[in-house]
Structures are given as structure tokens and as C-alpha cells.
Design brief:
The protein is mostly beta strands. It is built from two helices and ten strands; from the N terminus they run ααββββββββββ. The chain folds into two domains: 1-45, no CATH class; 48-91 and 101-140, Sandwich (Immunoglobulin-like), CATH 2.60.40.
Length: 155
């Protein structure tokens, strides 16, 4: 594969031989000129962001550090008591600019946060503020004991 100077700079000035050896995730198609498609990135660029999880009697509040993430690139999914967060850090380049050095390769954020209590799926909210994703999830009221009536039948 042929790599341009800009593509080499995007990945920290790596040589073409090093770039060719990297495992790639979401491998896109090469363009007619043999260039890398925009949705392709090294697998090493998946980040597991730090999390702060708080709980009280009514809710969970989770903070996930995601600098550079754009709100429309963030996906929050609730499956059972697990909260999955995925996002892409967007790299903005100036038009007609040549990148001379870049240590900030585009990254994908992935994190699974386990909650110790069922939450109401209709009452989960997420807000991105200053690079920190704030997720609030209201706990679902589940009684400690449920009495079940047994219907008599003839034996």
C-alpha cells in the first residue's frame, strides 16, 4: 500500500512498513489512488476511558472522560445492568494544511460499566460537557418480596 506524507504524519510519523504491519479495525476500502479511507484506524487506537460511578438510593450517576468526542458520535446502550458507551474522537484538519506532527491519532472509546441494580431504560440520560460524558440512570423499583397467588386446580 502507498502511504502519503500526510497519512504517515497522522499516525505519529510511522514508516510505511510499520503502518502495513499494524492490525486495522473497521478496515475501509482503498481509494483508486491507494490511499487509506477515512473510517480505517489502527486497532491500538481503541481507548478505555476512565470512569467515575456514583450511586444513591434513587439513581446512578456515571462520568466518562471522552476528550474530543462529538455528541453525535456517541452511542450509549443499556443491556440488562450493563451500560455500554462507544464514541469516536474526531480529528479536525485545517483545509489545505499539511500535518507536520501528530501524536493524537483518531481514537475510538469503548467502555462497559456494570450497575449493581436494574435501571429504568426510559429514564437514562446522557450529556457531554467539557469532554466528560455525564450519564444519569434512575433505579427501577423492584420489591424485595412478591407474593404470587396459587390458583387451585383439581388433582
Amino acid at each position: 500500500m502507498q502511504w502519503t506524507q500526510d497519512e504517515k504524519a497522522r499516525y505519529g510519523g510511522m514508516t510505511a512498513a510499520t503502518l502495513d504491519r499494524l492490525p486495522w479495525m473497521d478496515a475501509g476500502q482503498e481509494t483508486d489512488q491507494g490511499q487509506l479511507s477515512e473510517n480505517r484506524m489502527p486497532a491500538a487506537s481503541v481507548a478505555h476511558p476512565p470512569v467515575r460511578l456514583l450511586e444513591n438510593n434513587e439513581l446512578f450517576h456515571c462520568e466518562v472522560r471522552m476528550p474530543g468526542a462529538c455528541p453525535n458520535n456517541i452511542e450509549v446502550t443499556l443491556i440488562g445492568t450493563d451500560l455500554y458507551v462507544r464514541a469516536t474522537r474526531v480529528q479536525i484538519d485545517a483545509p489545505d494544511a499539511i500535518c507536520l506532527q501528530s501524536e493524537l491519532i483518531p481514537a475510538r472509546y469503548q467502555r462497559c460499566i456494570h450497575l449493581d441494580h436494574l435501571v429504568d431504560p426510559e429514564d437514562v440520560r446522557a450529556v457531554l460537557l467539557n469532554g466528560i460524558l455525564h450519564i444519569t440512570a434512575m433505579k427501577r423499583n423492584v420489591p424485595d418480596k412478591i407474593d404470587v397467588e396459587v390458583v387451585p386446580t383439581s388433582c
